[in-house]
Specification:
Blueprint: E1 4-6, E2 13-14, E3 17-18, E4 21-28, H1 36-46, E5 51-55, E6 64-69, E7 74-82, E8 88-90, E9 93-95, H2 100-113, H3 130-140, H4 153-161, E10 168-170, H5 175-179, H6 193-201, E11 206-212, E12 218-224, H7 242-245, E13 252-261, H8 262-273, E14 277-279, H9 281-286, E15 295-304, H10 305-314, E16 318-324, E17 330-336
Parallel strand pairs: 4-5, 4-7, 10-12, 14-17
Antiparallel strand pairs: 1-5, 2-3, 6-7, 7-8, 8-9, 11-12, 13-15, 16-17
Helix pairs in contact: 4-6, 8-10
């Protein structure tokens, strides 16, 4: 990966004193979409950072700020990350390319007040500080390395939790639902632990919640699902175009289907795309949709996978969303066209 280097800018003078300099070094994910480097380069150049380097990731990369220079002319050297979802991670902040104003304010605050001005600047979900959120994301990014289909949910949870760095707790109110849950219907081996657990807990009416522990370290709580509280999501929406995240979706094929069960169609598509398909079983149950009972019919036609998938799902009043797990592995989330709390017209 080539590095983008911005020539140093002349120091501004203010009240007879040199202004603080901000030097950014950004580690960009290897999976980052083509053109994203230039997008961030142009944005940060316009925001007048004093020095900018965008490079590939290296072992030991950590987001942080070191201070150099003098008290009268400090230099703040910032190491950040650009994720495969095209998000910029900086101490105390997470930004998309559309967050020009917020990013400008972050730079202004650092330039005028130093690193301490950023402390507590932005609370991320679950009450975590940014470095905690990043640690949790890395921890939950560990892949599931065992088979899950037909296993007991409590056993799958315990085995997955045993591979995590931070402790996994079960709320007392959730224990009954966990022990009484139906056997796991899906194989999620290979998916990241965060996405997999969020997915497997959902049909049992449970959710996964990272939170700060009493000792200051993050921990995970399995609790009864509550719409008023944040739950770790079943994957993340990518910033890139679908054609960049999963180009196989746009491959063309000849298709003809006659009275084929929907689950068989989805399994075949998943194998062809080499991408998992996860069913929103909670929503399917709410709307009384059985993917084995729904029969799919498509006349002979040459089309793309994405168009065929949309037509197939429409016959069951379903839709797909392309998502990424914590490893940035793409998968398809199949859910209903209508929300769980709203009846279809």
């Amino acid at each position: 990966m080539t590095a983008a280097l911005l020539p140093e800018r002349g120091l501004a003078q203010r009240a007879g004193q040199a202004a603080a300099r901000i030097e950014l070094e950004l580690a960009a994910a290897r999976e980052l979409a083509v053109g994203a480097h230039q997008q961030w380069y142009e944005l940060l150049t316009a925001l007048k950072v004093d020095k900018l380097r965008i490079r590939g990731p290296q072992a030991g990369d950590e987001v942080g700020i070191t201070t150099a220079g003098t008290a009268q002319a400090p230099v703040y050297r910032v190491v950040g990350q650009i994720t495969a979802r095209n998000e910029l991670l900086l101490p105390g902040g997470r930004f998309s390319p559309r967050d020009r104003e917020r990013l400008g304010n972050w730079l202004k605050k650092l330039r005028e007040g130093g690193p301490r001005a950023l402390e507590g600047d932005e609370k991320l979900p679950f009450g975590l500080r940014q470095e905690q959120f990043m640690e949790v994301s890395r921890d939950l990014g560990r892949p599931i390395e065992f088979e899950t289909r037909e296993g007991k949910l409590a056993e799958v949870l315990g085995r997955a939790g045993g591979s995590l760095e931070y402790r996994l707790l079960v709320d007392a109110a959730a224990r009954g639902a966990l022990e009484g849950a139906e056997p796991v219907l899906d194989e999620v081996r290979g998916l990241s632990t965060g996405t997999a657990l969020a997915y497997l807990l959902r049909p049992a009416g449970l959710m996964l919640q990272p939170r700060p522990g009493a000792d200051g370290q993050p921990e995970y709580l399995v609790a009864v699902a509550d719409a008023r509280q944040s739950a770790w999501p079943v994957g993340w929406k990518p910033q890139q175009k679908e054609s960049e995240v999963l180009p196989e979706l746009f491959q063309v094929l000849n298709v003809e289907l006659t009275d084929v069960p929907l689950d068989e169609v989805l399994n075949a598509i998943s194998e062809r795309l080499k991408a998992p398909i996860l069913l929103d079983r909670h929503a399917l149950l709410w709307h009384d949709i059985d993917v084995h009972e729904v029969r799919i019919n498509l006349p002979s036609k040459r089309t793309s996978y994405v168009q065929a998938l949309r037509r197939v799902l429409a016959q069951a009043k379903l839709k797909y969303e392309l998502r990424l797990d914590e490893q940035d592995r793409p998968f398809l989330w199949i859910t209903t066209q209508y929300p769980v709390r709203a009846a279809a017209p």
